[in-house]
């Protein structure tokens, strides 16, 4: 008791625990929050980092023994494991996972706030993936129909149709490939229409000017991904893709002005990238 009181007065943790045990507690907390729908998508990345990097390297140390020397050893170990210098964004993710472990230690009085290591994020700059050229996009879109027809079964063709619509929406909205659209539900979509009429210089048989109407359909999609929840906008290409998916999966009427109104209901909890069986 005297030693514990002394450590408390010296702003030192009263109880010590192995890093791996605290890391498992932090991991369990994140898993519970994800299960209850209040966790962040990034928690999945932190859990992966804890399992594959933090525990294998730091697990046997006491949580109070993770000092700058230990962190430097971890940096060297990580480079050897990855066989390259990690990018700045990778180190940020690893630091966030480490901070989750340290925060868990503070919550349980295994570590004091004052003794939490201050983490730095050094690393090589991430290289942006090259964008598609216009010619590449045109070639890809032109090849979809033939690729779909070459499917050897109805199931294969159905998957390829879904892939076509998915790519169309990605190109149109700028959504991140993966979770943002794959986890999108119909109830998270809002349809909009802003009709305009363009007067052309052309004249019809009666001498009247020819008008070109445009319904200007668009949709707002509430998506969740790497940066949390955000709203993205899709125009006619996305509307067409969603309509094709809905036609294949639902036997509902699709009005001309609002083709998705019978699908994007608050009660429709289906995922958009879902295939009827």
Provide structural commentary.
The chain is of the alpha+beta class and 277 residues long. It folds into two domains: 2-115, no CATH class; 154-249, no CATH class. It has nine helices and five strands. The strands form two sheets. Strands 1-4-5 form a three-stranded antiparallel β-sheet. A two-stranded antiparallel sheet has the order 2-3. A hairpin with a 5-residue loop joins strand 2 and strand 3. The longest helix is centred in the middle third of the chain and has 20 residues, at 88-107. The chain is elongated, with a radius of gyration of 27 Å.
Terminal CA distance reads 66 Å
Kindly state the number of beta strands: 5
Rg result: 27 Å
Domain tally: 2
Helical segment count: 9
Give the ordered list of helices and strands. HHHHHHHHEEEEEH
- State the helicity in percent bands: 40-55%
Largest sheet: 3 strands, antiparallel
Shape: elongated
State mean pLDDT (0 to 100 scale): 85
Helix/sheet category: alpha+beta
What proportion strand? 5-15%
Give the strand line-up of the largest sheet: 1-4-5
Low-confidence stretches: none
Q: Which structural traits does this protein have?
A:
three-stranded antiparallel beta sheet; 277 residues; two-stranded antiparallel ribbon; alpha+beta; elongated
Outline:
This protein is an alpha+beta fold. 47% of the residues lie in helices and 13% in strands. It folds into two domains: 2-115, no CATH class; 154-249, no CATH class.
């Amino acid at each position: 008791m005297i030693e514990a009181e002394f450590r408390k007065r010296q702003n030192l943790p009263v109880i010590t625990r192995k890093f791996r045990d605290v890391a498992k507690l932090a991991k369990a907390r994140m898993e519970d929050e994800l299960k209850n729908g209040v966790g962040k998508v990034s928690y999945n990345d932190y859990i992966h980092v804890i399992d594959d990097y933090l525990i294998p390297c730091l697990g046997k140390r006491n949580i109070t023994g993770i000092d700058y020397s230990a962190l430097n050893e971890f940096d060297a170990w990580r480079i050897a494991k990855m066989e390259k210098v990690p990018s700045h964004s990778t180190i940020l993710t690893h630091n966030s996972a480490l901070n989750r472990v340290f925060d868990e230690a503070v919550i349980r009085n295994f570590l004091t706030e004052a003794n939490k290591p201050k983490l730095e994020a050094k690393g090589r700059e991430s290289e942006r993936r090259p964008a598609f050229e216009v010619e590449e996009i045109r070639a890809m879109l032109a090849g979809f129909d033939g690729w779909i027809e070459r499917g050897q079964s109805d199931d294969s063709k159905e998957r390829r149709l879904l892939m076509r619509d998915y790519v169309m929406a990605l190109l149109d909205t700028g959504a991140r490939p993966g979770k943002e659209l794959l986890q999108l539900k119909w109830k998270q979509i809002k349809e909009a229409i802003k009709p305009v009429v363009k007067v052309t210089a052309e004249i019809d048989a009666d001498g009247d000017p020819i008008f070109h109407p445009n319904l200007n359909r668009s949709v707002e999609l509430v998506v969740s991904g790497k940066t949390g929840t955000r709203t993205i906008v899709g125009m006619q290409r996305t509307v067409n893709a969603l309509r094709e998916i809905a036609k294949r999966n639902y036997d509902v009427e699709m009005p001309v002005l609002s083709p998705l109104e019978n699908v994007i209901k608050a009660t429709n909890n289906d995922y958009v990238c879902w295939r009827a069986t």
